[in-house]
């Protein structure tokens, strides 16, 4: 017990500061980075108990990292995190800025081991080296990303989908207005995922897939929503939580995860095949602006096209539904900002204030709490030598909500994104790496423009006709891989003149 206590002795911020000063001479060895060391099999979770005890067992990732910062200082090591090697958390944006920029030539961000196994081992023959953005690394990732970047990231191209998204938003709002308060409280998030899938499917496939009808649980669209959720939740439990299984591939949970990936692939493949058939029947000879992402990519590389459409139907559901819930919550809690957005919409102005609201709500409630890169070489960070192969974490959510980086940091103040430089609120006074809701650099979110457009279109359509309010205790966030909101959803949607 004494030994355990010695091992978890806190290295305070002061001591870390001393190391940083020494670092101008010679970097300290990696073993000296303060934090949680690991034991075989159970990793470092046992050492983690004192931290959990102080923040509570229901703590989310944000609270856990905050507690670690307080205990260990600006740079913290967490060995054996879920059996996935060593993680280093840098609380100084200059530190991770330096590493992320140095890694831009080959940014490594590992996906789930189970998904890698599914694509790269189990179905190696089928995928033939085209493994998708979420799992591929190195040249395979770069080749894929280079092919898909223009179709997904060119703002002008993405804007062309706006009319279709407007129709979807209208249908979705009509459904929301028919829901009872009890249904809203329990099912709001489900509705949000139906809207986000219908929207991303329109862009990926060029047609509606029927999410906004009253479907049974085995309807293909419902199956995609189910699979996307399980494909986040189950690998989190298998791959990141402590386990006594040495070989996790032998577990029933691993088998279940593979079944989920199988089902998701099968259902999305059916939708993709229907689209291909439609394209074949009507011919390719239509203007580029009328083509779905799938159609545009089919002209470049069929395997890449199919995998990208599949990833869109997986990664574009909960991310956008969470962000929609977040911005509606903030606008409900800040009626002044809501009125300003409504005025902007009705006067037909550009969506400057609405965009600022979206940035601000993603600052306060990002989909992912932190960003990550695995080092491909040695770095000197905060005075320590950080070797190759370490997961370097940027805890953006914590930093984004800290007074150290933003004045009135926990308040929803969209103005900070639009005020003049001379205003103390001006966002440019903050280090640009502090708030990164879509990640960083060449490996940042490929769906960013699509997500922003979907959210903008929905909020515009909603606020023009509807007042949003919230009449309950503050919304609660829980973290798996992504942040998610807990029920109940105390939204009220009322028609407004
Ligand atoms: C508001 C909604 C969204 C947020 C906040 C978000 C956030 C992120 C973040 C933080 C990353 C990691 C970036 C990095 O490591 O630097 C990422 C990657 C990714 N996102 Fe999104 N995302 C959203 C919506 C979407 C949508 C709609 C799609 C699909 C159309 C999508 C597809 C992807 C893919 C495929 C990657 C991997 C990119 C790569 O490694 O090259 N995301 N996203």
Kindly describe this structure.
The protein is α+β, with helices and mostly antiparallel strands and 497 residues long. The chain has a domain at 113-368 and 438-495: Orthogonal Bundle (Cytochrome p450). The chain contains 20 helices and 11 strands. It has a 5-stranded mixed β-sheet, with helices on both faces. Helix 16 (318-333) runs parallel beside helix 20 (448-465). Bound molecules: protoporphyrin IX containing FE. The site of protoporphyrin IX containing FE has 26 residues, from helix 15, helix 16 and helix 20.
CATH topology of the domain at 113-368 and 438-495: Cytochrome p450
Shape: globular
CATH arch. level architecture of the domain at 113-368 and 438-495? Orthogonal Bundle
Return the average pLDDT rounded to an integer.
Answer: 89
């Amino acid at each position: 017990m004494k030994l355990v206590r010695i091992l978890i002795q806190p290295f305070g911020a002061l001591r870390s500061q001393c190391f940083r000063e020494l670092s101008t001479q010679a970097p300290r060895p990696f073993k000296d980075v303060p934090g949680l060391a690991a034991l075989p099999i159970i990793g470092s979770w046992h050492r983690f108990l004192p931290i959990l005890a102080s923040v509570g067992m229901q703590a989310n990732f944000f609270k856990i990292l905050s507690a670690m910062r307080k205990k260990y200082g600006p740079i913290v090591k967490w060995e054996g995190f879920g059996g996935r090697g060593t993680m280093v958390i840098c609380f100084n944006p200059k530190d991770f800025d330096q590493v992320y920029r140095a890694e831009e030539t080959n940014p490594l961000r590992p996906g789930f081991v189970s998904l890698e196994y599914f694509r790269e081992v189990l179905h190696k023959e089928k995928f033939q080296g085209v493994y998708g953005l979420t799992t591929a690394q190195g040249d395979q990732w770069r080749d894929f990303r280079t092919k898909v970047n223009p179709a997904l990231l060119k703002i002008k191209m993405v804007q062309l989908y706006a009319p279709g998204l407007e129709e979807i938003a209208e249908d979705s709002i009509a459904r929301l207005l028919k829901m009872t308060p009890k249904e809203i409280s329990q099912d709001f998030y489900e509705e949000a995922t139906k809207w986000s899938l219908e929207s991303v499917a329109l862009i990926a496939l060029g047609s509606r897939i029927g999410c906004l009808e009253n479907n049974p649980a085995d309807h293909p669209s419902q199956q995609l929503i189910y699979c996307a959720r399980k494909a986040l939740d189950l690998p989190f439990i298998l791959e990141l939580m402590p386990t006594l299984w040495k070989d996790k591939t032998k577990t029933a949970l691993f088998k279940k995860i593979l079944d989920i990936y199988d089902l998701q692939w099968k259902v999305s493949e059916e939708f993709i095949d229907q689209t291909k058939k439609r394209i074949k029947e009507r011919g390719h000879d239509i203007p580029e602006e009328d083509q779905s992402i799938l159609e545009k990519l089919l002209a470049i590389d069929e395997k890449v096209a199919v995998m990208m459409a599949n990833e869109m139907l997986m990664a574009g559901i909960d991310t956008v539904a969470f962000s929609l819930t977040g911005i509606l919550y903030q606008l409900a809690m800040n009626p002044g900002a809501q009125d300003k957005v409504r005025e902007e919409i009705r006067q037909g102005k550009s969506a400057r204030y609405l965009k600022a609201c979206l940035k601000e709500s993603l600052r306060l409630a990002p989909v992912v709490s932190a960003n990550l890169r695995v080092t491909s070489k040695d770095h000197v960070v905060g005075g320590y030598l950080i070797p190759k192969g370490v997961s370097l974490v940027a805890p953006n959510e914590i930093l984004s909500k800290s007074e150290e980086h933003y004045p009135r940091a926990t308040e929803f103040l969209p103005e900070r994104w639009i005020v003049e430089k001379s205003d103390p609120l001006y966002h440019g006074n903050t280090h640009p790496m502090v708030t990164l809701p879509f990640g960083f650099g060449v490996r940042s979110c490929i769906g960013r423009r699509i997500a922003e457009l979907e959210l903008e279109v929905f909020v515009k359509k909603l606020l023009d006709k509807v007042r949003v309010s919230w009449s309950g205790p503050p919304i609660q966030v829980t973290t798996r891989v992504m942040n998610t909101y807990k029920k109940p959803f105390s939204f009220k949607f009322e028609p407004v003149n």
